[in-house]
Write a structure and sequence with these properties.
Layout lengths: L3 E4 L6 E4 L9 H14 L1 E4 L6 H11 L11 E2 L2 E9 L30 E8 L7 E5 H6 L3 H7 L3 E4 L14 H5 L4 E4 L1 E3 L6 E3 L6 E4 L4 H15 L5 E4 L6 E5 L3 E5 L7 E8 L7 E2 L1
Parallel strand pairs: 2-3
Antiparallel strand pairs: 1-2, 3-14, 4-5, 5-16, 6-14, 6-16, 7-13, 7-15, 8-9, 8-12, 9-17, 10-11
This protein binds N-oxalylglycine (OGA) and manganese (II) ion.
Length: 281
């Protein structure tokens, strides 16, 4: 069965109709899905029966699935899936002051090889709240003034795990910390598939612009974040149960909304990086 892509009327997102986790995805369907992620930054597929091997197969066709640093939350069967749970009363439930991801970020930007894409799949959702916000960082770049585009061309930023995450990330163990030094990425990236320019900074992990004195760096980052977080670049994803959200993690940043107290549980797969962009700080 051929899938159908229905673009949302907004800056981010398309609904994918006709995915069926009881059958392998044909090459043709996989290609349309991947193209939809490039064209619309996020894809949403509702009402998918839970099938972890099928989800892993889908994720790994986009690119190699990589482990998240918080190995204590890896799925018991595979590092390719992490569990993001809250208020579930189970050992896998996170106990940070704020929910995981409740700050604007792009997954793994604090690694030398960050992530091309992520997939989140809901297995438990609160009756209200717990949305995920997504910002389109290609649109954000395009809408910058020409003066700002010239100012940021060629600049680089230092990214650090847990930098400005407001109590949403646990402290790393000594071993986890040892493999996660600060890294440097360009402030403007070019998307390898679409050729579009991306504003590649996020409030959660970016500490500073390396080429500027501290106060200028702080001022520029504040200006860039205020610009990028304008509502016109954003999509507010409302979860249904057994829903899949796929994000192009290069062209976007996202944030979990901290506004619920009922159980919420997601499976997450992180697609690694297929190009060389970062370096050690
Ligand atoms: C994360 C994250 C989003 C969500 O944990 O990195 O972005 O909606 N989570 O749970
Ligand atoms: Mn995230």
């Amino acid at each position: 069965m051929a899938i159908k892509i229905e673009p949302l009327d907004g800056p981010v997102g398309a609904i994918v109709h006709g995915l069926d986790p009881s059958n392998p995805l044909s090459d043709e369907d996989f290609n349309s899905l991947q193209q939809a992620m490039l064209d619309h930054v996020a894809i949403v597929a509702p009402d998918l029966e839970e099938n972890v091997p099928w989800l892993r197969d889908l994720g790994s066709r986009v690119g190699p699935l990589v482990p998240h640093v918080l190995d204590q939350y890896h799925h018991p069967e595979t590092f390719e899936v992490s569990i993001i749970a809250r208020n579930t009363g189970t050992p896998e439930s996170r106990n940070t002051a704020k929910p995981a991801g409740a700050f604007w970020h792009s997954d793994l930007s604090y690694e030398e090889n960050p992530s091309d894409a992520i997939f989140l799949y809901s297995t438990q959702i609160p009756s209200q709240g717990g949305d995920t916000l997504v910002a389109n960082m290609c649109l954000a770049y395009d809408a910058l003034s020409e003066a700002t585009k010239r100012r940021i061309a060629g600049l680089t930023a230092t990214h650090r795990w847990g930098w400005n995450t407001g109590g949403a990330t646990p402290k790393l163990s000594e071993q986890q910390s040892a493999t996660h030094p600060d890294v440097v990425h360009p402030v403007v990236r070019r998307h390898p598939n679409t050729g579009r320019k991306i504003l590649y900074v996020n409030p959660g992990y970016v500490m500073k612009i390396n080429e500027l004195p501290g106060d200028e760096s702080d001022g520029l980052l504040e200006e860039l974040f205020a610009h990028a977080l304008k509502p016109e670049f954003q999509y507010r994803h409302k979860w249904g149960l057994n829903m899949l959200l796929g994000l192009d993690n290069r062209s976007s940043m996202h944030a979990a909304v901290d506004d619920y107290s009922e159980p919420r549980r997601m499976l997450r797969m992180i697609v690694g990086c297929t190009e060389k962009i970062g370096k050690a700080a």
